[in-house]
């Protein structure tokens, strides 16, 4: 079954919204940025040796390892614990996004020569989509000139 350009657009918009929500939930929302550690912590076992200021040890040196090596392998795959106990909900994050008026200055349809008549019926892709997605079909006259018709915007209803 062929996918219409409008279906592709709907999926793309959904993907962008979900991606933005994921990014918003997995990043710090406006708090202070974390400071990088001054020196990286090695993730390997290191020998523990007595220093000159400490009394001599009668036991052999022991190995200590970083906590990440002693935890279970599944713990290494799980996401880190949240930095704060209360994470905002997706709805809260999306509601915080600013909504601004549309800015159309500089747009000219003639700059985009992407509309082709793939099936040779006289209507380019844009007009084919307009006809296919219409709630009330437009009148199609000579050279596929459209008039009338009614559509519902996917973006603002």
Characterize the structure shown.
- Helices cover 29% and strands 6% of the residues.
- With 157 residues, the chain is mainly alpha-helical.
- The protein has a two-stranded antiparallel sheet. It has a two-stranded antiparallel ribbon with strand order 3-4.
- Strand 3 and strand 4 (146-147) form a beta hairpin.
- The protein is elongated.
- Residues 44-52 and 59-70 have low confidence and may be disordered.
What would you say about this model in short?
This protein is mainly alpha-helical.
Oligomeric state of this protein: single chain
Assign the structural class, choosing from mainly alpha, mainly beta, alpha/beta, alpha+beta, or little secondary structure: mainly alpha
Overall morphology: elongated
Order of adjacent strands in the largest pleated sheet? 1-2
The percent range for strand residues is 5-15%
Largest sheet: 2 strands, antiparallel
| N-C termini distance | 27 Å
The H-and-E topology, N to C, reads as HEEHHHHEE
Roughly what percent helix? 25-40%
By DSSP (H or I, 4+ residues per run), the number of helices equals 5
* Average pLDDT level: 73
Task: Please render the helix and strand layout as text.
Elements: H1 5-26, E1 46-48, E2 62-64, H2 67-70, H3 73-77, H4 90-95, H5 125-133, E3 139-140, E4 146-147
Key descriptive features of the protein:
two-stranded antiparallel ribbon, 6% strand, elongated
């Amino acid at each position: 079954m062929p996918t219409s350009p409008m279906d592709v657009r709907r999926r793309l918009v959904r993907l962008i919204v979900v991606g933005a929500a994921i990014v918003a939930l997995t990043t710090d929302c406006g708090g202070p940025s974390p400071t990088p550690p001054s020196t990286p912590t090695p993730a390997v076992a290191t020998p523990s040796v007595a220093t000159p200021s400490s009394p001599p040890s009668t036991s052999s040196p022991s190995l200590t390892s970083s906590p990440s090596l002693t935890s279970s392998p599944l713990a290494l795959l799980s996401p880190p614990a949240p930095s704060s106990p209360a994470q905002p909900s997706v709805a809260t994050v999306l509601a915080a996004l600013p909504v601004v008026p549309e800015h159309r200055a500089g747009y000219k349809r003639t700059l985009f020569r992407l509309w082709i008549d793939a099936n040779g019926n006289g209507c380019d892709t844009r007009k084919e989509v307009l006809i296919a997605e219409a709630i009330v079909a437009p009148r199609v006259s000579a050279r596929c000139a459209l008039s009338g018709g009614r559509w519902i915007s996917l973006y603002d209803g």
